[in-house]
Amino acid sequence: MSGPTRTVRLLIADDHEMVRLGLRSILESDPRIRVVGEAASPQDAVYQAALLRPDVVLLDVRMPGGSGIDACREILGRNLGSKVIMLTSFADEDAVYESIMAGASGYLLKEINKTALINAVMAVSEGRSLLDPEVTRKVLERIRKMAASTDEVARAALSDQEKRVLRLAAQGKTNKQIAADLFLSDKTVKHHISNILSKLNLSSRAQAAVWATQHGLLDEFPERKAS
């Protein structure tokens, strides 16, 4: 004999009272769901989530006074144990992308039917994602393109001399050895290393060495030798 079904505690955040009332009526028609609170702004959504610690937050993407996506990020950043479903009136690829990057478990249009909405809340409460495979593919492709673009910008930001220094550092050479190979002072090499880490947003020479290898820098800029 199975035990009692767990009740999903839900917070609804939308700036339109009629929308909140409609969502509450639909969702509480299912005995497995209990609406424990409502919020009319992103700030109130964060406050209510922290106070009530719901299992699921149904959060409008756009509300006056702030962004539902920012509220999603803050709610999840507080480690309250809540899952977030973003809700919107129209499909928007940018909003989908931003919602996923903020950590939302799903993204629904307000035109969704009753059964699908209830199923979505239950699915997310059980740790499942609502992301459509095609949406996921587009988002991952966008992330890859952004990463490639960021790498190209970082690569372009390095001067030729910095690339030479990075190439030698990636070969395991010390600052003194790099200075000797490039006819520079130890202080200048140290300055170059510091600039390289800053431009690439890295924190160690080891990370810089990996970056240089991944980006084919070891095959470029042969070090100058004394004649």
Walk me through what this model shows:
- The protein is 54% helix and 14% strand.
- The protein is an alpha/beta fold.
- The chain folds into 2 domains: 8-131, Response regulator (Rossmann fold, 3-Layer(aba) Sandwich); 158-219, Arc Repressor Mutant, subunit A (Orthogonal Bundle), CATH 1.10.10.10.
- The radius of gyration is 26 Å and the shape is elongated.
- 29% of the residues are buried.
Strand content: 5-15%
Count, helices? 10
SS elements, strand count: 7
What helical percentage do the residues reach? 40-55%
Q: What does the largest sheet look like? A: 5 strands, parallel
Biggest sheet, strands in spatial order?
2-1-3-6-7
Any guess at the CATH architecture of the largest domain?
Answer: 3-Layer(aba) Sandwich
Q: Which runs of at least 5 residues are low in confidence (pLDDT < 50)?
A: 222-227
Q: What is the domain tally?
A: 2
CATH class of the largest domain: Alpha Beta
CATH fold description of the largest domain: Rossmann fold
- Assembly type of the chains comes to single chain
- How much is the average pLDDT? 84
Structural class: alpha/beta
Shape: elongated
**Fourth-level CATH superfamily of the largest domain:** Response regulator
Distance between the termini: 87 Å
